[in-house]
Design brief:
about 475 residues, mainly alpha, about 0% strand
């Protein structure tokens, strides 16, 4: 290698290092090439729309949602890389893509640990024991309607809304056999409650987690949304309440005992959450590092659980099977979405969208509209797009968009993972149309929750982020 080529390589390396150090949170928010009116941009946008259509019809095609978005993510960045390389600017695209991969890596590690804990608790029969306990309580249908709703509301801030909805849905199906109207209305209530409950906690929904990990809203600040999210759930539930007959339930099931170590795993999960919050708030480290530390708690506990079960000649608890049983399709779907949306943002489309919405409509109306959009398109790409746009908003406005993207998915049954999952679980008793009949009262709760936030947290709308 000649001295000149060595010097050129060193200059390129220094240039790349400088770019990495000087990147802001939006990662090249002003890329040197505007591809929004170029065939590369048009092709990327069309491919993403086509991929997302396949995601939306997954229930009918059974074509896993991760497959089209990962393919499109690769094609989008391949086109961007080819365009920038042909213009002698390869490092701009490289740095932007690395930034997107880093964002995904933090989200991936956090969710992987949470899913592993949830899977471990499921295998230890924690959720099954809760389900049977509820079934055997001997409640009226109205009491069960409210109990499953409130449990969904308060469990989803800790567990994800999908798991919460499936557990409560199983209870409703078991108790409400022969009462299809009760099952339909209870499923709608569970979807609304689970989505609303996930709003006031960083752990309740992927969107809140993304906002928290980006350092925009502090851990304690999310609790400002507790009352608005409660209103979002209680208002429609109060109206649906009168459509359920106040009759006694009759189903009973044999008691289920939590397996060895189940209670310990619950405690360790709570400690893991505390660890993640502490890493973020006090040590200023990514929450994912705290969650990975918490995974080690489970791995160590798994060793002793396995030893105890082997002595009893039982199949030993294997933590790595729980990792394998995580929702990998969902985790890989997030990769495709984040990288694809990041590519569209790098092309320049998100800047155009930000100007069209936030500058033309204003932050409040734009954030309300984004919530409605999340009822049609999954709220993860919607929130990631907002984070990538990074509009100049107050803390109150960031909490508003967190609220609307979280609860907006309740407007339609296809608007959230909880709704889609319960449609599959209900054997045709809970459908898009049955949910649509109650959309009016859900919209009422949506509007009142927004109004409550604007009134109760008015002071936060003057607090800069």
């Amino acid at each position: 290698m000649t001295p000149n080529s060595q010097g050129l390589k060193m200059i390129k390396l220094c240039t790349l290092l400088f770019m990495l150090l000087s990147m802001d949170a939006s990662a090249t928010s002003e890329p040197p090439l505007d591809l929004t009116i170029h065939w590369v941009g048009y092709t990327s946008l069309i491919l993403f729309v086509l991929a997302y259509i396949l995601v939306m019809v997954e229930e009918f095609t059974h074509f896993r949602k991760s497959k089209p978005v990962i393919l499109v993510a690769g094609v989008i960045w391949g086109l961007i890389g080819w365009m920038y390389t042909s213009q002698g600017l390869p490092y701009f695209a490289e740095v932007a893509l690395r930034h997107n991969i880093l964002e995904y890596a933090e989200l991936f590690l956090f969710l992987l640990v949470a899913m592993t804990y949830i899977e471990a608790m499921r295998e230890r029969h924690v959720f099954e024991a809760l389900k049977v306990w509820l079934i055997n309580k001997g409640l009226t249908f109205r009491q069960l309607f409210w109990l499953t709703g409130f449990l969904a509301f308060f469990i989803s801030p800790i567990a994800d809304n999908l798991t919460t909805a499936l557990i409560m849905g199983a209870v409703v199906l078991a108790v409400g056999a022969g009462n299809p109207r009760f099952i339909t209305i209870s499923f709608i209530n569970i979807v609304v409650a689970a989505n609303a409950g996930g709003v006031f906690s960083p752990f309740g929904d992927i969107t809140t987690l993304m906002v928290w990990q980006n350092g925009i809203v502090g851990f304690a600040q999310f609790f400002s949304l507790f009352v608005p999210s409660l209103i979002n759930f209680v208002v429609p539930a109060s109206i649906m309440h009168f459509s359920i007959k106040n009759e006694m339930t009759t189903n009973n099931q044999s008691k289920v005992n939590i397996k060895l170590g189940g209670i310990i795993i619950i405690i360790l999960f709570i400690i893991t959450i505390i660890t993640a919050v502490s890493f973020h708030n006090f040590l200023h480290l990514p929450p994912a590092m705290g969650m990975m530390t918490g995974l080690s708690y489970l791995m160590i506990a798994a060793y002793f659980i396995r030893q105890s079960e082997c002595k009893l000649q039982q199949e030993g608890f294997d933590v790595f099977r729980k990792v394998a049983n995580a929702e990998w399709d969902t985790l890989l779907f997030f990769f495709g979405v984040i990288v694809s949306v990041g590519g569209l943002g790098f092309i320049g489309y998100l800047t155009l969208a930000s100007e069209a919405m936030y500058l033309s409509l204003g932050a409040t109306y734009a954030n309300i509209l984004i919530g409605v959009l999340s009822a049609i398109v999954d709220n993860i790409p919607v929130m990631f797009a907002v984070l990538t746009m990074n509009p100049d908003m107050s803390l109150g406005q960031w909490l508003l968009v967190t609220l609307t993207t979280g609860v907006g998915g309740s407007l339609f049954s296809i608007g959230s993972a909880a709704g889609v999952a319960l449609m599959g679980q209900s054997n045709g008793l809970y459908t898009f149309l049955s949910h649509l009949r109650w959309t009016g009262v859900i919209v009422l709760g949506y509007g009142l929750s927004i109004g409550a936030h604007i009134l109760m947290n008015a002071a936060l709308f003057d607090v800069p982020v």
